[in-house]
Amino acid sequence: MLRLIFTIVLCSFPALAQPIGSVTDGPFSITSFRPESTPEDDALESYFNASNPLAIEFFEHLTLLSNPWVGGRQPGTQGSKLAGQYITWNLERFGLAPAFAENSSWYQPFLFDIDSTPPIVNKAFVAIEDMALVDERDFVVLGNSGSGDITAPITFVGYAIEDGENGYSSFDTETDLTGQIALMLRYEPLDENGVSQWAQRRFGPHASIKDKMQAVIDRGAAGVILVNPPNSRDGRRGLEKNRSTRFGYTDIPVVHFTQDAANIALGQANTISGLQQLADAGEITTLKLQQNASLITEVETSKLHAQNIAAVLQGRGELADEWVVLGSHYDHVGHGYTGTSSPGELHRGADDNASGTSANLILARLFSEYYATTEDDSLRSILIIFFDAEEAGLLGSAHFVKEPTMALESINAMINLDMVGNLSDNNISLSGTGTAVEFETFVPEVIERSSITASLTPGGTGPSDHTNFYKEDIPVLFFFTGMTSEYHTPKDEAFTTNPAGGAVVTELAYDFAKRLVNDDKLTFTSNTKGGASRTTRMPSPVRLGVHPSYSDSMETGILLTGVSEGTSAADAGLLPDDVLLAWNDIELTGGRKLMELLKESDPGDVVDFTVQRDNENILVKVTLKAP
Fold this sequence. Notes:
Layout: E1 4-6, E2 23-25, H1 43-49, H2 54-65, H3 78-93, E3 97-98, E4 107-112, E5 120-128, E6 131-132, E7 139-141, E8 148-156, E9 181-185, H4 209-218, E10 223-227, E11 254-257, H5 259-266, H6 272-280, E12 287-300, E13 304-313, E14 323-329, H7 350-373, E15 381-387, H8 395-402, E16 411-417, E17 427-431, H9 439-448, E18 453-457, H10 466-470, E19 476-480, H11 499-516, E20 546-548, E21 558-563, H12 568-572, E22 579-583, E23 586-587, H13 591-599, E24 606-613, E25 616-623
Parallel strand pairs: 8-9, 9-10, 10-11, 14-15, 14-16, 16-19, 17-18
Antiparallel strand pairs: 1-2, 3-13, 4-13, 5-6, 5-12, 7-11, 8-12, 13-15, 17-19, 20-21, 21-22, 22-23, 22-24, 24-25
């Protein structure tokens, strides 16, 4: 038995600092060693004893989900799987049932991609008859290409537009491209000056690469050759060598030809310039050519694996077939794979969104106990869902509403909990309060019985998962405690959160949800101003004030789902449903590009945005302001 106790003083903590360390005789029995504690020693215990009883449960969940052991919960990683196992372990012990009944699973897997992870092309070979073309000189394999090895006849399909302006179509009703390689022009019909016939500036929605590709795939095409129109004034020059995934994915070889290579494919009887003139005038649909092409592509896609997690609490009585959805996203950015200025560093994601996941787990337990004890014989069923890949663009919720487990019209409301771990001054942001007629009286009634001050935003859109439910005409409520300096940085750790506040927010969400499970069904209403409490995904010296969509199908551009009042965008007259096509002369290929440009800007800078509005392209001058 040691008889001497060495006291080590950590002088970096002022409350514990002493002039010098000391050595004293220890007790005869170590079990009798119990020094007097100071208030600083018991600070953590005192904090939780004085807090809402749910604060401890909230903090237990949050600390595990933000522990380095789960590696920042990047979709598809071992850490994400471990976080998922923790979630399902809790759901099972609460007595809930797996939501995906088809295979009795807690999980709904899906694949996704992000702009920064282009596919790897391991093999690229193209030949016209017996003439081999040179990769990256005559052609490139596009980022949406699948793998394949085909030799097939070539068919010119013009601009591959199914239903354009004034009845324009590149196809006849009987067009069948089965077993053929479709050679298509990029963009849309041009005039003699190389300008779009259908848009005042740049190109309109009919230029969508995704739609054009799908049109030929639907008609059986075995491969695609894309070529830029020779005289396009606003179009790109040269080959698409960055293999962007913004065109989506296909299961067939897709290559981009230079105009010289396209002329080789057309043979001596035609030129790409001559056929373009016919397509511009609407005087040609498809033309079977006399030559065959061989396309060999071996593509290792950049798709990442993700999985939503969900459980069901079955309702009863006449309301059992109706639903309330309680949602939160459990993913984060891992070591900075997207949405951060610190790539390569561990992002624990405590507030974003271990906090919302913790609240949702508590709701799962509370409702399981409530349904087991209440005498109410008419209750809606509850779906408790944890979305994956939110940080990559609301992809988990988008996948769920595309492949739901119930009829979407049977959902009474969706509650979304995202970043609820930093309650300050007892003030919470509550968005979506204008998405149901009944919320005008319903929301104040619940809030007035709480200790919370709620800042209300009527719009149902914003950069979180409730947006995808609102787009399906489902009333939504989005709980959010505000932006912090730790947002999307390695500093978003458990000790920077407010667990007691998280418990308060959880109780408020529970009070709302209890009303939603048995009150009269809500009446959905849209709000044209649409907005949300947070509007940017990366810090920048200026704020534009727009809410971008993450599911736009255009070849280029950013679809706006909302515009925040009092911002640069609102002052300039930008509107929801506008599509931002260009920043001055720089093409906007997605939200990442916009964030890069904003980070390089200063307050007072004036930007000429090319904007597509109601199928017309206009110029909007925006003076940027500080956040």
